[in-house]
Amino acid sequence: MEKKLKIALIGYGKMGKAVGQLARDRGHEVVVIIDSQSEWETKDRQLQACDVAFEFTTPATASGNIRKCFDAGVPVVCGTTGWLHELPAITRLCNDKQQSLFYATNFSVGVNFFFELNKRLAGFLANLEGYRPRIMETHHTEKLDAPSGTAITLANDIISHREKLTQWVNADQDEAEHLLPIKSYRIENITGTHVVRYDSVVDSIEIKHTSHNRSGFAEGALLAAQWLQNKTGVFCMHDLLNI
User: Which of 9, 70, 110, 230 shows a CA-CA span of 20 to 30 A to 161?
Assistant: First the structure.
C-alpha cells in the first residue's frame, strides 16, 4: 500500500505547484512550502517533520537548498537543472551524512526511455561520420536555463559515443567538428519538446519527445519520492526504472 507522505515543497513555481497539486490529489500532505531564502529560518521545524522535500528552484540556489534539507534529515527529490557541476561535492556530503538524494534532469518516464533511445541511436551512428548530430529544445518563456538539463543529458550521451565530439555549444549550428550544437527556443505555453537530428547529404534521421503537460513530470517525481523512502545515497531515474 502506498505510504502517505508528509511533503515539503522547496520552490513554488510551475513544477512545485504541479507536484503539490498531484500530491494532494493522491492524499499526501503538503506540510510546508519554502519559496524564498528568507523563509528557511521560520519554517525549519516544519521541514524537519517531513518525509521528503521536492526541490524545484534555480541553479544558483539548488545545492544550498539540498544541504539545508540534509541538515534537517529530510530526503530530497531534486528536479532543478544547471547545478550538476556541484554533484560530486553533494554526493560526498550525502554519503557522509547518510542522507538520501534523488535527482533527475527530467522526471518524465517517457523522457527517460527517450534518453535510452538516444544512446542506442548514437551508438548505431558512432562510426558514420557523414551523419552530423544536433539537438533542438523548446520550452516556455519562464524557463530560466538554456539549454535545458534534458538537452544537456542528450548531448553528453551523444558525445560519449563520438571521439571527435568534445563538447556541446548553445547555438543554432556550428561548423567545428568537435562541437555539438544545441538550439534553444523559448515560446509561450510550451511544456517541453526535444529533438535529436542527424543530417547527412542523402537523408536525415530524427527522434523527438514532446511533453503535453507537466503531469508526467509530477507523476515521476512522486514515484521517485515513494521509491526513495528508507534508502540512503544518491539515485537517479536509471535506478528507479532499472535501466
Answer: 110
Question: Hey, how many other C-beta atoms are within 10 angstroms of the C-beta on 165?
Answer: 20
DSSP 56-97: ---TTTHHHHHHHHHHHT--EEE---S-GGGHHHHHHHHHHH
Distances (CA, A) of 222 to 57, 81, 99, 208: 17, 18, 18, 25
Could you give the angle at the alpha carbon of 34 between the alpha carbons of 28 and 35, nearest 5°?
Answer: 120
Q: Report pTM.
A: 0.78
DSSP 145: S
DSSP codes joined into one string, 41-58? HHHHHHHHT-SEEEE---
Gap between the Cα atoms of 236 and 157, Å rounded: 15
Question: In the beta sheet, which residues pair with residue 97?
Answer: none
**Which of the residues are catalytic?**
139, 143
Give tens-digit pLDDT for 103-152.
Answer: 998 898 999 999 999 999 999 999 888 999 999 999 988 887 889 988 99
| Grid cell digits, residue 208 | 523527438
